[in-house]
Structure formats: structure tokens, C-alpha cells
């Protein structure tokens, strides 16, 4: 498991088309990717299981805890990104609720765009 951080400071100012915003890149994929949004209610859990393909979990709201085989939980909150390799055992849980975007693909390299936390 690797923990990354989304941040405005690592983004790029976009001015094309009379724009004025900052874009922080997350990932590029050449392989097919599945992208979804997960909603964990109070005391929600994504049970302990193996990742079928490499997975990124972007925390966008709420807070919770993640772990891998080591059974040590790490707290996550908005702006945190968790990366699990294919076949890596992992679990996500929350006491108060958590919303996250999940990106799954055979070829993910989050280190190309985001700094480690």
C-alpha cells in the first residue's frame, strides 16, 4: 500500500481558452479503466479482500481508515489517495462516513503525478 496526497501546490495553472484554474493530475492509463464512486455510511466497511487489479482510492469526503496485510490502520481524509497493487490484501472502514472515487486498471502509476504522503 502506498499513500499519496492530492494538493493544489503540485498542480499546474491552466490558462488556455481564457481559463484560470489549477489542475492536479492523478493518473494516465493506456489500458481500460473502471472509475466509480463509493459511499460508505456511518460504520461502513469494504471488507478485507485481494485487489483484482491495481486500485486507487481518492478520499473526497469524510474520513476513515485503510490497511493492508500488516493489519496496521492508517487514517485517511479528503485529499489522501491510497494505492493498492494487484493481489494486495486490503480493507477500508469508517466510523463517521466516507466518500471516495475508485480507479481500477491493469496499468496504474500514481507516482508519475502525485507525491507520496
From TrEMBL:
Protein name according to UniProt: AraC family ligand binding domain-containing protein
Keyword terms: DNA-binding
Annotated organism of origin: Lysinibacillus xylanilyticus
Domain AraC-type arabinose-binding/dimerisation: 55-98
Top-level lineage group: Bacteria
Pfam families referenced in this protein's UniProt entry, alphabetically: AraC_binding (PF02311)
Amino acid at each position: 500500500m502506498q499513500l499519496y496526497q492530492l494538493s493544489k501546490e503540485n498542480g499546474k495553472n491552466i490558462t488556455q481558452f481564457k481559463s484560470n484554474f489549477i489542475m492536479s493530475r492523478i493518473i494516465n492509463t493506456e489500458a481500460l479503466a473502471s472509475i466509480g464512486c463509493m459511499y460508505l455510511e456511518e460504520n461502513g466497511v469494504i471488507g478485507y479482500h485481494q485487489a483484482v487489479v491495481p486500485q486507487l482510492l481518492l478520499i473526497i469526503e469524510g474520513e476513515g481508515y485503510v490497511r493492508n496485510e500488516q493489519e496496521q490502520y492508517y487514517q485517511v481524509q479528503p485529499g489522501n489517495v491510497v494505492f493498492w497493487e494487484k493481489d494486495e490484501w486490503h480493507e477500508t472502514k469508517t466510523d463517521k462516513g466516507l466518500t471516495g472515487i475508485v480507479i481500477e486498471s491493469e496499468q496504474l502509476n500514481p507516482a508519475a503525478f502525485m507525491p507520496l504522503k
